[in-house]
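job 3f2a | input accepted
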Amino acid sequence: MKLIQRITLFAFASAILMFALGGAAHAQDKPGTQQVEPGALVEALKSGGNVIYFRHAATDQAQQDSSPVDFKSCATQRNLSDKGKEQASTIGKTFGLLGVKVSKVYASPYCRAVDTAKLAFGEVTVVPDLEFAIAKSEAEAKRLGRVLRKMLENQPPKGTNTVIVAHSANLKEAIDIFPQPEGVAHIFRYQDGRLTHVGRVPPEQWAALAKNK
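job 3f2a | predicted structure (213 res):
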């Protein structure tokens, strides 16, 4: 075999190995899965100890974010639609009806995330590092993903839950889950040094959970 052929084959084999190792490492970063039935999910929420990640509620797709975004002016951003405002309000009412306690609510600085959090839960703490990751460089997006991962692993006070309201790309960067559609919630629990994905609740399912409490 010619030298150039051996070099090419070696490079190809090395690339395959690196891809496999990278894939394995990435898979280890993904949370464990423990999908539960709606009734059990309600009990899990009521017992506390969860971090609930909401993608902001439905938005007006006719609007666009300015570039760069002005966080002090909602008029320069894509905002909640009437449907999104109703979704957020329903989420908050459902939490109250079910008796699900929330200790902390964090939100991205985008108005659509802050408004979702306020309409659903009232008080909110804005976290700049929850800013929309898709608009960032690759390095910055990965950093934002690491920040969110740490937040997902931070256990809330006993008997309560933590709520995070942000964007699709951030959760994708943090744990390789792309939350669809707008308004969807993903519930996580950190136990014994491992993050577990407990369940997913689409925005229209909250009202049904309240009826079957």
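job 3f2a | The chain has a mean pLDDT of 86.
job 3f2a | closed
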